[in-house]
Amino acid sequence: MGEQGYGGTQRPSDALEHAGDRTSRYAIDNPGLPPHRPRLADEDPKAAKRAERQVSVLFLISIVGTLLFFIGYFGVGQIGNNEGFDVIHLQNVLLGVGTALAMFGIGIGIVHWAKTLMPDHEMAEDRHEIRTEADRQVAAGMVQDIIDESQIKRRPLLRNTMIGAMLLAPLPFIAVFRDLDDTDNFSDKETENFGVERFRHTMWAEGVRLVRDPTGAPIKASDVTLGSAVHVIPEGLNELHEGKLNEKAKAVVLLMRLDPAKVNISPGRENWNVDGIFAYSKVCTHVGCPIALYEQHTHHLLCPCHQSTFDLTQECKVIFGPASHALPQLPIAVNDEGFLVAQSDFHEPVGPVYWERG
Asked: Nearest 5°: phi and psi at 341?
């Protein structure tokens, strides 16, 4: 009974004899490229024209999306300086939908263009180094072939709508990043750091009472029990008619009480708390999310967006997560009536640390 091999029954001597030419015996011939199957647009000029119009419509959608972004960014937000939630909701919808349409139109338009109008023949070429002038001319010819195959020269509707969409699409991002720089509002050259002064100063000042958010009720030291956490805003914030949300976004504070013996207090901050009542900014130093989770047993503050964790016993030092800076502390005291008041504003800018804090 013979032994089984790749070619059926064979003797061991046969396997050894033909081991050297196994590649030639069992190699598969190169099948070559599959036959090209023409698309509808390759054979029907009407289909090609229809595809061209479809791609142009997608590019026009991108242009409309960019215009919607600008309407929301520069138009809706300026209506009578109204910062009501309805206006903010409308603005966010226009910004989101506009950006999505701008990117969607360009992306899908280019893909549809490539799949319906650009040549789709498969090619196989050997790779070689470009050294001689003749080779460079060949490379230049290849680039010209690509331009010709894209049909961008003989389809002006595609070319013009694509150029318009691509020129407008980056403008929303330029507007957003440009708006971060508020240096024109400050004469001091040291403030030329992406508008850091906006975050260095809040409504907190000496004698400003701490009130509950959102009721505005003032807080006495006796109201803050051990282990509790109170959301706090500066008195007078609710009475603002303009800029209320902007001021609140900077000035919101978490007020907590714990055993002062458990807190490692830095020199110079000994009188920043009132019998273990500490006030810290609610604005996460990662990307500015509101911190609202307080673990009473561990004395940790947790940001719900990216899980940055701050240790209250170490002056809200970061112990986990992407944040790299402790939460700014608000110095507080008690006035003659027993209400908690601020000693001053924050001693450093609130918010994310990508603004200069020098």
From this structure: -135, 160
Which are the contacts of 118, defined by CB distance < 8 A and separation ≥ 6? 149, 150, 151
- Say if 10 falls within a structural domain: no
List the one residue out of 140, 210, 168 whose CA is nearest residue 70: 168
Distance CA 222, CA 199 (A): 31
| Residues 202, 337 within the same domain | yes
Report the distance separating Cα 231 and Cα 228, nearest Å: 10
Number of domains in the chain: 2
State whether residue 341 is helix, strand or coil: strand
Residue 208: count other Cβ atoms within 10 Å of its Cβ: 20
Pairing mode, strands 309-311 and 277-281: unpaired
81/354 Cα distance (integer angstroms) = 28
Q: pTM here? A: 0.55
β-strand partners of 332: 342
CB 274 within 8 A of CB 340: yes
Residues 146, 235 within the same domain: no
Q: Rounded to whole angstroms, how far apart are CA atoms 19 and 137?
A: 47
Count of residues making up the chain: 358
Question: What is the Cα–Cα distance from 64 to 164, expressed in whole angstroms?
Answer: 11
Using DSSP's 3-state secondary structure scheme, residue 332 falls into strand
Average pLDDT by consecutive 10-residue portion of the chain (358 residues)? 46 48 61 82 90 93 92 72 69 90 92 87 69 74 76 78 83 70 48 57 95 94 91 93 85 94 93 96 92 91 94 96 93 96 94 62
Within a 10 A sphere around the Cβ of 357, how many other Cβ atoms? 15
What would the two tokens of residue 128 be? 């070689």
Amino acid at 90: L
d(CA 138, CA 125): 13
